[in-house]
Amino acid sequence: MKKRGLILLAVILIVIGGIYLALRGRTCVFVREISPGKENAEAYEVQLEGDVVRLTGKEVRDGKLYLTFQAVSRGRAFADIYCDGEEVDVVVLYVHAGGVITEGGFLGRCTGGRIVPALTLIYLAVLFLSAVRKYRRDVGQSLYRYRNVTDIGLLIFLAFLLVLQIQHFFAYSDMESTLRSVLTSADSFATVALPLAFVLSIIVTASNLKLMKNEGRTWRNMLACILGVVVCLASLFPKILSEMLQRSTVVDVHNEKGLALYVELLVENVIFIIVAYLECILAGTIFMNLMAARRRPAFDKDYMLILGCKVADDGTPTPLLKGRADKALEFAAQQQNAGGKPLIFVPSGGKGPDEPVAEAEALEAYLLSRGIEKERILCENRSKNTEENFRYSLDLIREAGGAADAKIAFATTNYHVFRSGLLAARQGIAAEGVGSRTKGYFSLNAFVREFIATLVSEKKTHGRTLAILVILAVIIILTLYYSRTI
Predict the structure, then answer these.
(1) How confident is the model at residue 125 (pLDDT cuts 50, 70, 90)?
(2) Among 446, 451, 426, 448, which residue's Cα sits nearest to residue 435?
(3) CA dist., res. 411 & res. 319, Å (int)
(4) Which residues does 5 contact at the CB level (< 8 Å), separation at least 6?
(5) Per-residue confidence (pLDDT) for residue 204, from 0 to 100
(6) How many C-beta atoms surround the C-beta of residue 417 within 10 A?
(7) Domain residues of the chain, as ranges?
(8) What's the pLDDT band for 210 if we cut at 50, 70, 90?
(9) Distance between alpha carbon 431 and the CA centroid of its chain, in Å?
(10) Is there a common fold for 26-103 and 303-446?
(11) What share of residues in the chain are helix, strand, coil (percent, to 5)?
(12) pLDDT of residue 78
């Protein structure tokens, strides 16, 4: 469903909920446990202040007192309940526009109030199904898109929110509880994810130490560790802040009508929204990278690009580069065994300042040693990065007489497949990738780099989404504040 359709559906559900509450909510039944020996309804007297509501029913059954109130005019009323002349309870009743009565608070319990979490569930279910359809459509158009990462992150959070709201529906007490359940959903998500984030932080710290030992001490090689620590600290910070404010003698967060309580609530939930959102996008990044690395292209390809990386000091492929070449050879053999055509290999990569030969030339020599005929190799030795790998390789294919609709595959390391495919797609090259394995400590840090690249690439989308979530939190908190101060 498109955005306009979702907005229209929200308006329709709000109207339906309003009409239903207006029809059902004009009466309110207050229920109270009674003391043994007080089963006579006549022993109970109700005194009402003002003419906002009137008492229309009073009975005792099954050990409980049932009082039925009906709306008269808009406003607030207090009903003092006496038993044999002694006050036993006070009921606060609000009559809203449309004659809807709530008990206990401005957003308290009302007859037919369960329609609110029910309609919320319906809308969330539609959002979830729409997100599923959008993800399937986007992946169908191209696997290599950053928007697919965002789609997966949204699906993860919507699924979690649906579970929470199903639980809330069966435990529903009043309309305020529904608002609070939506408001604190990010808090719940971050809290549930905290143990996993903590464990992962330990794992990535160990892997980053190993990475620095083998690849050098740079801030880039500590990205995964830094992110893990930041997520854990950010998840704990609101709890620590709340505990400090609870003990503070300067800021009063105990007054339900005071502004400080709701400012604290806003700060905490904004932090949780950001943390939960980043966790969802990180999960989406890992999912899409694994999906891209595991996906097997169709056996109908004409060319196989091998993306270069650093060569050894003696001019031979490093284990990482050799792994990419072996993956390309493996796919070529599988395609031929499946009855497909022989592939033409396009090793790609220029000569870096600290390399004895061009990466493509090292790859070409390795392919020749593995029995690939020279006529099946097009050596692209100018490129300096992945984007140029594809651009110059395509130029070389065209110069060699390759068809405009030639089908292309590429081989790279598993963590690099998604990003490589994305760079190819941006140039209009419909290439599919295969990924070779690499050491785990390297992959973890690489996933975090892809996560950061996702945030930067789709920063406007992420900014708009976070802004909408924060605005929603502000609206809910203002509503809660108004309900306490009215």
Answers:
(1) very high
(2) 446
(3) 14
(4) none
(5) 64
(6) 28
(7) 26-103, 137-294+457-485, 303-446
(8) low
(9) 28
(10) no
(11) 60, 15, 25
(12) 92
Per-chain mean pLDDT for the chain: 87
pTM exceeds 0.90, yes or no: no
Four-point Cα dihedral 39, 44, 46, 47, nearest 10: -160
Helix residue ranges per DSSP H, 216-258: 223-246
- CA–CA separation, 330 vs 483, rounded Å? 66
Would you put residue 69 in left (φ > 0), alpha (ψ -120 to 50) or beta? beta
Among candidate residues 415, 450, 446, 444, the one with its CA nearest the CA of residue 201: 444
Number of H helices, E strands in the chain: 13, 11
Q: Report the pLDDT averaged over residues 173-192.
A: 89
Separation between Cα atoms, residue 106 and residue 86, nearest integer Å: 27
Bridge partner residues of 238 (DSSP): none
Chain centre to alpha carbon of residue 339: 42
Structure tokens at 375: 């006529």
CA 438 from chain center: how many Å? 28
Using an 8 Å Cβ cutoff, are 297 and 432 in contact? yes
- Residue found by looking up tokens 């809203």 in the block: 96
Report pLDDT digits (tens) over 36-47. 777 788 888 999
Q: Is 2 left (phi over 0), alpha (psi -120 to 50) or beta?
A: beta
Position 450 scores a pLDDT of 78
Question: Domain 303-446 is of which CATH architecture?
Answer: 3-Layer(aba) Sandwich (3.40)
Check: CB of residue 399 under 8 Å from CB of residue 422: no
Query: DSSP letters of 316-359?
Result: SBPHHHHHHHHHHHHHHHHHHHTT-PPPEEEEE----TT-SS-H
CB 413 within 8 A of CB 323: yes
pLDDT at 445 over 80: no
> DSSP 3-state assignment of 135?
helix
Homologous superfamily (CATH) of 26-103 is: Immunoglobulins (2.60.40.10)
> What is the widest separation between alpha-carbon atoms in the chain?
106
